[in-house]
Design goal:
This protein has one domain: Dynein light chain 2a, cytoplasmic (Beta-Lactamase, 2-Layer Sandwich). 40% of the residues lie in helices and 24% in strands. It has three helices and six strands; from the N terminus they run H-E-E-H-E-E-E-E-H. The strands form two sheets. It has a four-stranded antiparallel β-sheet with strand order 2-1-6-5, sandwiched between helices. A two-stranded antiparallel ribbon has the order 3-4. A hairpin with a 4-residue loop joins strand 1 and strand 2. 25% of the residues are buried. One of its GO terms (molecular function) is actin binding.
Length: 140
């Protein structure tokens, strides 16, 4: 099985721009170049998902801190299979240079992100769940 091809298929969706596939032991099988979680970060996620650790207020993955509350500028979804950890994320691109007055630009940008977020979050979740199902059907 080609882990890179599975990762590539996740990135073909319009909702995921960072992804990783790892073993439950934390070893990374495939990840996007700009999203390189550590073995310990993956192990922490596995422990959290299996209920072996208390629900954290935040966690770190690939050097980026995520709150378990919704972020306006991005979202992340994690799924476990028997042997695999599937991570899909959307990280908002850096803001473009301001063409409007700063306060107006920030307000407009936040409104757009709020309007898009619920749909994007659901798409990220659905893509990760589809990969999880595929891996489970193939014995992972």
């Amino acid at each position: 099985m080609s882990w890179d091809s599975i990762l590539h298929s996740m990135l073909q969706s319009d909702c995921i721009n960072r992804a990783a596939l790892a073993g439950r032991d934390g070893l990374i099988w495939s990840a996007t170049p700009d999203f390189q979680p550590t073995q310990q970060e993956i192990l922490n996620l596995v422990n959290y998902c299996e209920g072996e650790s208390a629900s954290p207020a935040s966690f770190t993955l690939a050097g980026r801190r995520y709150l378990t509350l919704r972020r306006l500028e991005g979202c992340i979804d994690v799924a476990l299979t028997l042997n695999c950890v599937v991570v899909g994320a959307y990280v908002a691109p850096a803001e473009t240079p301001l063409t409007a007055p700063p306060a107006q630009h920030k307000q407009s940008n936040s409104l757009q992100q709020c309007q898009q977020q619920p749909n994007r979050s659901e798409k990220v979740h659905q893509t990760v769940m589809n990969v999880r199902l595929y891996l489970r059907e193939n014995g992972f």
